[in-house]
Amino acid sequence: MSAERQFTPGEVSRLLDVPPSTLRRHVALLGEYLSPEARRQRARLFTMADVEILARVRQLTDQGMHLEDIGPIIAATIEQAGEGVEYPAGAPEAEDTTEQTALMVVARISEKLDRVNRSLADQAGDLQALRLQLDQQARRLAELEAWRALPWWQRFGKKPPDA
Fold first, then answer.
1. Residue 133's pLDDT is what?
2. Taking 90 as the threshold, does the pLDDT of residue 141 lie above it?
3. Sign of the torsion formed by the C-alpha atoms of 32, 33, 37 and 38
4. In the chain, what are the domain boundaries?
5. Looking at 8-12, 24-28, 90-94, which range is the least confident one?
6. Distance separating alpha carbons of residues 31 and 37, to the nearest angstrom
7. What's the pLDDT tens digit per position in 97-113?
8. Which of 58, 72, 81, 93 has its CA 20 to 30 A from that of 119?
9. 1-39 as b/e, with b when 16 or more CB fall inside 10 Å?
10. DSSP E strand stretches across the chain
11. Alpha-carbon span 17 to 73, nearest angstrom
12. Does the 6-86 domain belong in CATH 3.30.70?
């Protein structure tokens, strides 16, 4: 095992915003492009290179590509990037791929934040509508309580107040 940071399936799942079952399916179909630790059935661990490959797979599937068609693209990408070659920690090639993965993760987080912001805006509108309804109900309740506080002979033959 190398000193390189390794990720659990749960961490990778959260980083890439994919369910664990999707991650397992990607590993099953495209495992030949991943490290041996990532292909294990138990105690699976992913390297940063594995995360980068899986991020690229996620990007391609988001663009509508099928997993069967992604394999050759990943193979070409790995060959082009010179994967399989261990770069020293400060090497520009290693920094580039790490930077790309980091940018992809940041883009995913940004998309999630945008969705959350839109959801919060919708919920704020709903909350405002509910507050208005609550105020109307409180006003109606106060009117009914005032009417009920009247002596019975003053209420006799009269309808309760309407909202």
1. 95
2. yes
3. negative
4. 6-86, 93-163
5. 90-94
6. 10
7. 567 667 777 777 788 78
8. 58
9. eeeeebbebeebbebbebeeebbeebbeebeebbbeebe
10. 6-7, 46-47
11. 21
12. no
Q: Which residue's structure tokens are 């068609």?
A: 69
CA distance 75 to 80: 8
Angle at 60 (CA atoms; ends 76, 102), nearest 5 degrees: 85
Question: Which string of b and e fits 65-94 if b means at least 16 CB within 10 Å?
Answer: eeeeebeeebeebbeebebeeeeeeeeeeb
DSSP state of 150: S
With H, G, I as helix, E, B as strand and everything else as coil, classify residue 84.
coil
pTM over cut 0.70:
no
Q: Which phi and psi (to 5°) does residue 6 adopt?
A: -120, 150
- In the block, tokens 């940018």 appear at 103
Whether residue 69 is predicted with pLDDT greater than 50 in this model: the reply is yes
